[in-house]
Design a protein that fits this description.
With about 300 residues, the protein is mainly alpha-helical. Among the domains are: about 1-95; about 205-300, Cytochrome c-like domain (Cytochrome Bc1 Complex, Chain D, domain 2, Orthogonal Bundle), CATH 1.10.760.10. About 55% of the residues lie in helices and about 5% in strands. It is built from 10 helices and 4 strands. It has helices at about 1-30, 50-85, 90-95, 100-110, 135-160, 165-185, 205-215, 220, 245-255, 270-285, and strands at about 120-125, 130, 240, 300. The chain has a two-stranded antiparallel sheet with strand order 1-2. Strands 3-4 form a two-stranded antiparallel ribbon. α1 packs antiparallel against α2 (about 50-85) and α7 packs across α10. InterPro entries: CcoP_N, CcoP_N_sf, Cyt_c-like_dom, Cyt_c-like_dom_sf, Cytochrome_c_Oxidase_Subunit. Keywords: Heme, Iron, Membrane, Metal-binding, Transmembrane, Transmembrane helix. This is Cbb3-type cytochrome c oxidase N-terminal domain-containing protein.
């Protein structure tokens, strides 16, 4: 029986190490290949965050496998030592102690099996005895590192406040983004926004607006601007829910209307595109398409200093 156990234990390292070597090689190959070369990502470039997440997962799996390998090797060494001790070969093991055995002994601070009586406690639980072993030095080292890290973290973020917390970082980023947006607006006098947008009947602008309208707006407002029930209002009459005129129309296109099918287009269109659509929508006034929706909102009266079509 002991010979069978010994032969089984002797065969474990070869099988175990062979399997692990193959898995480690596969992981290293995956780690070397770019993350955007898998599956459907071949067609769409992977962002930096997705690449970082992919490599982080691979690295964690690789690290865990190394830890499991170390624990397995250490367990096998202990089993071998137990078998040798049973045969009375403990002295020979001590004489031929390898560097690996010395390293594991220092890392674990484990008491040899033949010296367990020195750490044996008086407790007896149904024949099971308890040993007063020390905590492994590597574990205590990590524990001390976490304590030191916590002290430094509290001192930096909460006591001396030399570094901002997450909420403050978020607020700082918002302020920086607002300043950049303000600089961008003031630095470009020709930038179109809801305050300075104006109507134009230039053919190029109207044609651009028509093309964009037929692609993005006909699903709710129809191609002729008559509107669809439950979706988009009629754009051809003089009644407007959110105000007529190029400025109001531009504002509605830019910001959308929450709770309705009118989404915000500012992330999908440039200011020039939104202005072109607004100008084209104004040219639909008075076309009176058949089966148009009923008037909605309030009648819009253009200001005296603006074109009548606006």
């Amino acid at each position: 029986m002991k010979k069978r156990i010994k032969s089984l234990i002797a065969s474990i390292p070869k099988t175990f190490l062979g399997l692990y070597s193959r898995l480690l090689i596969i992981l290293m190959l995956l780690f070397c290949l770019p993350a955007n070369s898998y599956g459907q990502q071949l067609q769409q470039p992977t962002s930096g965050e997705e690449n970082f997440l992919f490599y982080t997962v691979i690295a964690m799996v690789f690290f865990v496998m190394l830890l499991v390998l170390i624990v397995a090797i250490y367990t096998l060494l202990i089993l071998k030592r137990i078998i040798k001790n049973e045969k009375g070969e403990a002295e020979e093991v001590e004489e031929t102690e390898s560097g690996w055995d010395i390293l594991t002994a220092k890392l674990t601070d484990a008491v040899p099996v033949e010296e367990e009586e020195t750490v044996l406690l008086s407790h007896d639980y149904d024949g099971i005895h308890e040993l007063d072993n020390h905590l492994p030095p590597w574990w205590k080292g990590l524990f001390y590192i976490t304590i030191a890290f916590a002290v430094v973290y509290i001192a930096i973020y909460h006591v001396f406040e030399t570094a901002p917390l997450q909420i403050q970082e978020y607020q700082n980023e918002l302020l920086a983004a607002a300043e950049q947006e303000e600089e961008r607006k003031t630095g470009d006098e020709d930038l179109i926004n809801e305050d300075n947008v104006t109507f134009t009947d230039e053919v190029a602008v109207i044609e651009q607006g028509k093309s964009l309208y037929e692609v993005n707006c006909v699903a709710c407002h129809r191609k002729d601007g008559g509107g669809l029930p439950g979706l988009g209002p009629n754009l051809t009459d003089e009644f407007w829910i959110h105000g007529g005129g190029v400025k109001n129309i531009y504002k509605t296109i830019q910001n959308g209307v929450p709770g309705t099918s009118m989404i915000s287009w500012k992330t999908q269109m440039s200011p020039e595109d939104m202005r072109a659509i607004a100008c084209y929508a104004i040219t639909l006034f008075g076309t009176n398409p058949p089966n148009a929706r009923e008037p909605q909102g309030e009648k819009y009266i253009p200001e005296e200093d603006t074109p009548a079509t606006e």
